[in-house]
Protein: Sulfate transporter, permease protein, putative
Amino acid sequence: MDRTMTHPLRRYMPVFDWGRTYDRKAFSNDMIAAVIVTIMLIPQSLAYALLAGLPPEAGIYASIAPIVLYALFGTSRALAVGPVAVVSLLTASAIGQVAEQGTAGYAIAALTLAFLSGGFLVLMGVFRLGFLANFLSHPVIAGFITASGILIATSQLKHILGVSAHGHTLPEILLAIGAHLNEVNWITVIIGATATAFLFWVRKGLKPFLTRLGASATMADIATKAGPVVAVVGTTVAVWAFDLAGQGVKIVGEVPQSLPPLTLPGFSLDLLQALLVPAILISIIGFVESVSVAQTLAAKKRQCINPDQELIGLGAANLGAAFTGGYPVTGGFARSVVNFDAGAETPAAGAFTAIGLAIAAVSLTPLVFFLPNATLAATIIVAVLSLVDLSILKKTWAYSRADFTAVAATIVLTLTLGVEVGVAAGVITSVLLHLYKTSRPHVAEVGRVPGSEHFRNILRHEVETDPRVLCLRVDESLYFVNARFLEDLIQSRVIEGCSIAHVVLMFSAVNEVDYSALESLEAVNARLKDMDVGLHLSEVKGPVMDRLKRSHLIDDLNGQIFLSQNDAWTTLADHPRAAAE
Amino acid sequence: MDRTMTHPLRRYMPVFDWGRTYDRKAFSNDMIAAVIVTIMLIPQSLAYALLAGLPPEAGIYASIAPIVLYALFGTSRALAVGPVAVVSLLTASAIGQVAEQGTAGYAIAALTLAFLSGGFLVLMGVFRLGFLANFLSHPVIAGFITASGILIATSQLKHILGVSAHGHTLPEILLAIGAHLNEVNWITVIIGATATAFLFWVRKGLKPFLTRLGASATMADIATKAGPVVAVVGTTVAVWAFDLAGQGVKIVGEVPQSLPPLTLPGFSLDLLQALLVPAILISIIGFVESVSVAQTLAAKKRQCINPDQELIGLGAANLGAAFTGGYPVTGGFARSVVNFDAGAETPAAGAFTAIGLAIAAVSLTPLVFFLPNATLAATIIVAVLSLVDLSILKKTWAYSRADFTAVAATIVLTLTLGVEVGVAAGVITSVLLHLYKTSRPHVAEVGRVPGSEHFRNILRHEVETDPRVLCLRVDESLYFVNARFLEDLIQSRVIEGCSIAHVVLMFSAVNEVDYSALESLEAVNARLKDMDVGLHLSEVKGPVMDRLKRSHLIDDLNGQIFLSQNDAWTTLADHPRAAAE
Structure:
């Protein structure tokens, strides 16, 4: 990147950076992208609000101020911020535990959640704690997104069936729907099923169909994106024309015609405490999703994003949502890709989208009065099923059982015990499996490849060995989890091989020796000394050596430190006794 | 070791191994050791029972059956099993939460704790889960033992002062003692302070004193070990002769004259649930302490212990304690060293000690009727103060701030919030610090040392570089915690250096690539491909390569895999474009 981030204002507000070179061409590209994204966002915003259990306008409001704030503080030039499926699900799960859906308390809880989440993101950004997001491993995220997709799609079935059923886990949702099956509204089912089938066809079959009819690729693309709008208009008109609302079809109803209102989150200590953990979870998941989208898009134009600044951008967006009637938001994959493909050049495209949505909020909301909830549910189902990717199970199984275990645990526990338990279990499983893997490091006995200075595993290669010299290559950093393993290993190897007079530890792959490992090495050294066996180290890396020098190990070592394994071999295998003195 | 563990009976009961070669010389050595250890154990067992809040005989009973069972199942030839200070403290803390001291429920809770702990240890042994103990890093153990020593010594002050005061944390204990200062019994203080001073002098000053008087070293040693017995006899006689019990000096009182009784632990679900976590904690801490003692002693005779079999030995000992009126036990440092120094050759020495203690339990208990509790408290204080080692703070500070943090957190939290919170916080701190350290791995840009095949950090050495080829040596295994770090690093380096046409990752110190890191590498590969930059790997280890071959990365790699970094350099730096194809 050509910018130099010196002025603090430019450091925290990248808008002062790209804003200086903004020109007419960028403006017109941004405008075109904004129009396309606005049209796509209207039904999507209404639908995600429904998923979060909030009134439909909350989805629109959550797309206005957050977009503008992200444009000011964010570093990605194409990321589109707003309500997304997974965060909406997490929101419903979190605030469903503190308030009843449809009450004023529920909406305030949503604002509070956005406030906490925004505050947490900003703090993480200021203290540069973005690396914390790395504790969510890729398999855990993949498993979580897949399970969330299944949960979301299932939770929308009630709108398609026209019954009321609540639940936050797969068994709960299915049981609740099962218990209300006698209340199914068949007109709603017909609308919902038709809309779902239509949207699936638009997604999979429309483009080839139009192309066969001779339409240009661009035309076909635009038609595909307009699919949800067609479904919305079609079903709304049908409900209005045949007075289906009178037949029990649930509709969106009155949506206030207004710009985003000024709102205040709740500041009661109980509420803040109850929502803190979910807010942290939402922040981290939202951040991870957003950063990976932003990074992918930035790479395509050889641009960079700054993850710590992204935290501030997303945090500002969430704080904005908290004070303007929204709920937690993040950078969404679908909308960002559309924005990018439509040619957005700068975050100004986002600002123009916000203006488009504001106009819609003021003037278009009466048009969705007759829009059936079933259509919105169909939009959600079609969107989230693309998140469900069970192939991650197959891929991780082939690559590593540990990663497979983490994915499987995350999916199963998210579906059966809910999103929060699922993610927590996934993170804990990943950490424990990592510690387990490093707790039994690969240690190879090595010998010299004849005529060379290379040392290789004696089990895999024909190499020179000496029964008096035991050379072990340690293929792992040494720290508390595996310190005792090495201690036991050396002790048992030396006791088995009675003629051993020297042990050489080859440290080429040892990147760290922590205090536990240091004490283990000291214990090994003392025990080997008692047995009259020398302990030597070879190929110790600079940073590791710097640290070892601060301990007593080097002074007390019953042997030498060799720069290369070959030095060790030449010295010890030729004149072993002399070297130990 | 010369034994071959083939028969299952010999695998699980090492007694069939050493028992076959047992002879007269071993017998007489074991007998001598047993007599010395028995004399030392009588006051110690009474004292630790007092520390655990149990009647004095519980300490003796806990030293009989467990010793015999460990002799049958354990692998260390010198380890002496019985009540120890830290485990007694943990026992008091755990069962104090479910029952009132002095009640029948309290004793049953102690049996139940021993039962759960024994069961857990046996299960860990059968499933070979001994490595779990490694999660307790050396700094955490050192901090915990030191803090426990301080807590134990402070908790015994009440016996020296003759007041009643309960508490499980340092502030609690000090406040409780402060609140009862007006009740101090001055005769008790004189007995306690004299006994403490005498025992300190025996420990530090007696041996040089006797040596100056012309005594042999062996005589001086035996006299030192007999110190507690002298203190016990002296203060008991003083209390009896001057009827000090009538003056308010608390005494041991009646101890039943009996062999260990048959007892049953409690099996109520509530009790089991309440004690499960403390039992696991006690098991792991006891195991760690015991194994390190056993390993140190074994190394001195070039013997081996088997940690998984040790779990079974200690588990059997605890199950034995549960059914014979005892409480949780483990291998103690002091008694094991005495046993070893006294010449114990086989676990039979332990069995003879058990016989000695059984005789004491049947015949000698009336003799301790007038023994003041203050003397027992003095024994404990002098014993545990040798556990307190604050130098660990200084040592870890010098070696590594991360290890220092773990020690300091463990000490402070154990003292202020109690033993369980302290250990848990220590473990969590160690794990998080380890993850943090590996989350920002050392990545060095390397160049070739002129005229050689060695590659070194360009910041530390004068090396050959090529602006078109970026060579990065990754000094850490790649896994989810640091996957994104490398992703960001490569992306920003390539964008800074516009002329870069090739990135070579040198994997000589990469011991693992997990699925998250694989996906990051795939993302890096795809992004570099978009930028028309090649991605190459060099010096990939066998096990890592085996795994990468199971993924698509190798097939899709926009570059090559080189056996050595030098091959990569020769190929790319000379004909860079040709190589990318």
